[in-house]
Specification:
2 helices, six-stranded mixed β-sheet, globular, alpha+beta, single chain, Jelly Rolls, 224 residues, 2 domains
């Protein structure tokens, strides 16, 4: 009975560590909820051959589903889910994706991340990201290799701001090519792939409890 209780405690500590990971403040950043939770100056389309004109986007599981010349590949999240599929605009200033009014804490460092892949090899997109009108990170040029997911990552300090308006603009205005996909957009106080200190402590507690259980069981078996 005591062993079961200790194992339960270890599992609870590990689950708590996972639960304390900083939340993603971006709504529907993986597009699993479809065309909701964000804005775009592009026109939303859906269905076969719907993404042929510039300045349109679709939410689908593969670029080839909406354009006959685009590559067929899966989303970044799971390989089978939805992503944002974009035919780049040939006029400047249009926001590909944006979300306004995200509540943030003042004087706090946040980390913005998203994953990008080209759906067609010609004239890869050149993407600029901004928060509250100020650029974050350098211009990101997508790979000419189709279906190769690459991460854009930048930190941002909120200063006196209590809200964040995030926007993405494509600076490539080529009519031919200039086609790409987005997935797993996030804004968080935790850098991607790095557990927070509280999470480390809980994980160590969980591993320690599990180790104690195993040591006691081995000792009991040796005595028996």
């Amino acid at each position: 009975m005591r062993t079961k209780l200790l194992l339960t405690a270890a599992m609870a500590a590990a689950l708590a560590a996972s639960a304390t990971q900083a939340a993603n403040l971006v709504i529907n950043g993986d597009f699993s909820a479809g065309n909701t939770g964000f804005g775009s100056d592009y026109t939303f389309v859906s269905g076969p051959n719907s993404a042929l004109p510039p300045a349109v986007y679709a939410i689908d599981t593969s670029p080839h589903n909406v354009h006959p010349s685009w590559a067929s590949y899966g989303d970044h999240t799971s390989g089978t889910g939805d992503m944002m599929i974009v035919n780049g605009a040939d006029v400047g200033g249009k926001r590909v994706w944006f979300e306004n009014g995200i509540t943030v804490a003042p004087s706090t460092t946040y980390f913005f991340s998203t994953w990008i892949a080209s759906s067609y090899p010609t004239a890869p997109a050149q993407l600029d990201f901004s928060i509250n009108g100020s650029a974050i990170g350098p211009t990101f040029t997508a790979s000419s290799t189709t279906g190769l997911w690459q991460q854009f990552f930048a930190s941002w300090n909120s200063g006196v701001s209590t809200t964040a308006d995030i926007a993405l603009v494509n600076q490539n205005l080529a009519f031919g090519g200039n086609d790409f996909t987005l997935d797993d957009i996030s804004l968080s106080t935790k850098a991607p792939g790095v557990p927070e200190p509280a999470s480390w402590a809980l994980m160590i507690l969980g591993f320690g409890a599990a180790g104690a259980v195993l040591r006691r069981r081995r000792a009991a078996l040796a005595v028996a």
